[in-house]
Amino acid sequence: MLKIDIHTHIIPEHLPKWSEKFLDNRYIHLDHHCPGCAKMMQGDKFFREIKSNCWDGDVRIEDCDATGVQVQVLSAIPVMFHYWEKNAAYALETSRFQNDFIAEVVSRHPKRFVGLGTVPLQDPELSIQEMERCVKELGLAGIEIGSHVNDWNLNAEELFPFFEAAEKLGAAIFVHPWDMMGKDKMNKYWLPWLVGMPAETSLAICSMIFGGVFERLPNLRVAFAHGGGSFPSTIGRIEHGFNVRPDLVAVDNAVNPRTYLNKFYLDTLVHDDMMLNYLLDLFGARQLALGSDYPFPLGEHHPGKLIESMPYDDVIKSRLLHGTALEWLGLEKKLFV
pTM of the predicted model, to two decimals? Predict the structure, then answer.
């Protein structure tokens, strides 16, 4: 059965030394300290160790073949968003470099990879221009964005033209948590990734619901990472808050938040059969798509294994493994078989 993994990350093997060019050590560079390995560095600060499967399409295909994944959707590592850069032209340059790299990887293996671009979302006008280049010139299927943009949540009116342009282009949007809230209070136990990330995704979903983005743009196709984070398990509380304090909650959109559960997509990266069953009951198979977070440790190391282990019929499994992904991406199955 065709498997499309909508949540995988990639980085160019040979990054420019942007930290020197733009005089800011927050930019990542790669220290290729041994064959097939590299340290992601921010100045002299170690960020993460990665291997060649993080940049080499051929290695990724070998891994996919070993786990029965036919197609990966490629997107940037969130630390590479660079929304914090005050000079948006610098962030645009880094976005274009990454997008050209992703497009090149896809062009070499068009049946195995689909690409999502990244944009300097701190400048929505530049972001729209780069999104149009990604879709119209590079042939990418959409854009990956963060769960917030500095002080803007995703309901910010400044960002609405970007979402409006994405709907008009038919570009898929993938929302990934980054720069986690409360991280300064979570300096032990990897808590920013375990606690902050799920909260960030719920923040993004609630912001788009209560800010009326889905109401105003009914054809916008948005998918959220990590099974929607903490949002699905707190929808009861969220809806109750909407009902009992509409003066605080419903100030921009008077529609019950539960109405929107069929208006966006989630990946299936939940690591738990009970939670996957709950998502299926709450959202339905049409809103759920396989996502693994390849090639990182918090991901599903055998993409689709949880779905395949469940007692679902083939109609549901095919929807989870590829049908929803194709709908969200706006692509046809025949491109990959």
Answer: 0.97
